[in-house]
Amino acid sequence: MNAQAIAAQSAESLQQIPLSHGLALAAALFCVGAVGMLIRRNILFTLMSLEICTNAVALAFVAAGAHWGNPDGQVMYVFVVTLAAAEVAIALALVLLFYRRHHTLDIDQLAAMRD
Amino acid sequence: MELVSFYISALIALMASLLAVISRNAVHALLMLIVSLLAVACIFYQIGAPLAAALQVIVYAGAILVLMVFVIMMLNQGKAAVDQETQWLARENWLAPASLAGALLVMMLYLLWDSASRGAAARSVSAAEVGLAMYSKYLLVVELASFVLLAGLVGAFHLARRHTADSAASTNNAASTESVKSARGVR
Amino acid sequence: MSALTVLIAGFPLLGFLCLACAPLLIRRPLSESASAIIGVGSVALSAVAWAILATHHASPAYVHLWQWVSLPPLRVDFALYVDALTITMLGVITGVGLLIHLFAAGYMRGDDGYRRFFAYLNLFVGAMALLVMADNLVLLYLGWELVGLCSFLLIGFWYRNPENARAAGKAFLMTRIGDTALLIGIIALFWQTNTLGIQAAMAALQDPGHNDRMLAICALLLLAGAVGKSAQIPLQTWLPDAMAGPTPVSALIHAATMVTAGVYLIARCHALFQSSAMAMQTVAIIGTATLLVAGSSALVQTDIKRVLAYSTISQLGYMFAALGAGAFSAAIFHLVTHAFFKALLFLAAGATILRVRHKQSLDAMGGLARRLPFLCACFGVGCANLAALPLTAGYFSKEHLLLAIWHNQPPWLWWCALIGAAITGMYSFRIFYRIFFGPVKANDISRLPPAATRWQMGVPLVALGLLALAGGWIAPPLESIFVDAHAEPASLVVGIAGTLATLLGIALCWWFLARRPGSQALGLCREFLRQGWGFDALYQRLFVRPVLWISRVNRGDIVTQIYRGISALSLGANQFLSRAQNGTLRWYMATLLAATLLLLLVVHALARVSGP
């Protein structure tokens, strides 16, 4: 069996998962993450919820890319991961700073810094 | 067969995410998050994105979340924090936001349902293709992403650094200038 | 040649700059003598340059200085054009201007604004020279506006009195109406002939294929400008009020030079006016109406300067009537002689006013002949000229005017002009008689001014008196420029009729003054005439009151209220929305989700509506 045949077979088998199902999962994950960001006051949980949202978006990219047989989806995934890494690094540094100063992780107390 | 495994993975991802969001303990939540990410990695593999699946496991679950684990350990949240979370997660606090997000979900699902998914020749996209695309078409974006990473690195280093040495030096300076001033005043 | 033409306008402008900038340079007030030397000297140099130019150089000449604007096809050069008409006008400006400057050096002595006065006067002379030397209409307009500015500044010279400032503003606004029309006319003429040069435009008119109606409109617009500047009906009301300025200003600007700019403009563009019979007729009718209205108003004025102002308007009306009759050289000739004798009259009046302690009312004068014999003689010469008694300069020019009107206009216009001549005789005699004869009312004569001042004021009076007596024999050589309509020989009948009309007027006036009738009807009529036929009241009712009414209605300014409402709305919205910026992350997230939901709904609904 040559490579082309393997590709054809895998294409055949892969076709069974519709795009809309992948996107629906992405939407559901995003909404779960959004709920998390809305209801949690602990800044750590907010960050984790943000990760879920980011991941959901990445899933949407990859699913769409795979559906069209296009590498762009995965390229975008790489960028999303890059962004997430940078964001987590900065955010965690801020969390540490915040905790050191105020000895709390309540995000509503951060709002008081506005004044 | 793939369809069944897809649904199983999807279910795991959703449940794990939900548990992560409503968990009282930060470490438990983090573990649930890792489970969710791994499930999504499975889905990546199944829909024909092996590179994304690998990166998800190595970078996302492996590196980024481990970073969070370290931070949680440094913060050392105890029993008091769990009680505090329980108090914050009262029903009146989460009902309205959850229903809002639920409405959004319903809307998105309805739209997905509404737009019929057109069948296209789906195929697996290899890592080689992705690499070629990244370093030809998206070269500039890759450079920009490296800038973002560098900025993140520097920023995180600057923010998380303890300023004790600095502050000590500055107070020393202040003291020395004071003494100089007083000396002048005497003269 | 080019240097001389530039110098004629350049000396006074340089004088203006010196006088204006002197305090900056020498850091202390300029003495009166220095101001007078700079002010009078610059005009004297200018007059010398004119004399050399007039005697030694052939005209016409074109002097191109530099290019001003170049926007093809529009091209404006800073260029001067000198021909016999320009030389004549320059002679009046520099010659009469010099004499009046000299007079003013004595007259204004002791005034706070001595330096300022001479700076303005010098600027005026330079601008007026620029106006008459301009080769193109844009440059002419520049000079036109500059002399208007000087007029404004000098009428309001004693600006501490609000009345003077009001008169200055009135003069400025009234002439501005005409100026705006002139500007439109210049643009329209450029549109028609594709050139702004005066000579080029007049030459272009000779080509066939022009729109006659448009050219007539151009001529009427230029006429409107001339009417504003020369105080003709319906824009004549500013000139009597302009007498608020110092008397030398009245003599120079409001009698001899600036108000004749309108006459010059029409004479300069005579080809344009001649191309339209209707425009010529309009000029003639405006002139005739003005000379009658202003003459009759001059009959009853009690302020000595207002009499002279109305007589100026009336004489300008004569010039316009002659222009309308096609007698351009006659009009310019009368312009020159009028400049001589009216300047003489104003200066003599100014000297008289100075001697009776700044009283200007005729009622406060009388019987001054024995006390002021020299001024009486000067004033008498001026009045004789004004009334056009035989053998004076005014007689010669007036005869030319009447002859032209007789030959080229319908008879009723000639009769009007003749009646005007009679009225002129009446008011000339009246003012002379009221000041210098009759019962003595003013015993309070101030003593003679110092010798230097006496000299400065006396020399111009003598010189102008001689010019007014002998000016009739120095007819300006204008045949090269105008092909006058009246080629006919002088008519004895016309000459005798004019003289008889004047003598009749004088006799009538003598009779009136002797009898002093005072009936009620005559008093009412007199009041009407004194108000200048009620033009001021008419304009007040027609224009000023409606504008005041509108401004009163719109006191709150409706448009401003609208804008204020918008700003209040924005402020309110800002305050409302800034409440959303509360710094709470969860609140931001919730609004983000809600907005996304809303957006999806809207997009979906739109897709439903527009889709199948």
TrEMBL record, chain B:
Known catalytic reactions: a quinone + NADH + 5 H(+)(in) = a quinol + NAD(+) + 4 H(+)(out)
UniProt keyword Oxidoreductase, yes or no: yes
Subcellular compartments: Cell membrane
GO molecular function, one term: oxidoreductase activity
Summary of subunit composition and partner proteins: Composed of 13 different subunits. Subunits NuoA, H, J, K, L, M, N constitute the membrane sector of the complex.
Family: Belongs to the complex I subunit 6 family.
PANTHER family: NADH-UBIQUINONE OXIDOREDUCTASE CHAIN 6
Name this polypeptide is given: NADH-quinone oxidoreductase subunit J
From TrEMBL, chain C:
Pfam families in the cross-refs: Proton_antipo_M, Proton_antipo_N
Keyword terms, alphabetized: Membrane, Transmembrane, Transmembrane helix
Membrane topology summary: Multi-pass membrane protein
InterPro entries on file: NADHpl_OxRdtase_5_subgr, ND/Mrp_TM, NU5C-like, Proton_antipo_N
Localization (cell): Endomembrane system; Membrane
Domain NADH-Ubiquinone oxidoreductase (complex I) chain 5 N-terminal: 68-118
Transmembrane regions listed in the UniProt entry: 6-26, 38-58, 78-105, 117-134, 140-159, 180-202, 214-235, 247-267, 279-300, 307-333, 339-356, 368-392, 412-436, 457-478, 490-513, 587-607
Keyword Transmembrane: yes
Top-level taxon of the source organism: Bacteria
NADH:quinone oxidoreductase/Mrp antiporter transmembrane domain: residues covered: 134-424
UniProt KW Membrane keyword: yes
PANTHER family per record: NADH-UBIQUINONE OXIDOREDUCTASE CHAIN 5
Name of this chain's protein: NADH-quinone oxidoreductase subunit L
Gene for this chain: nuoL
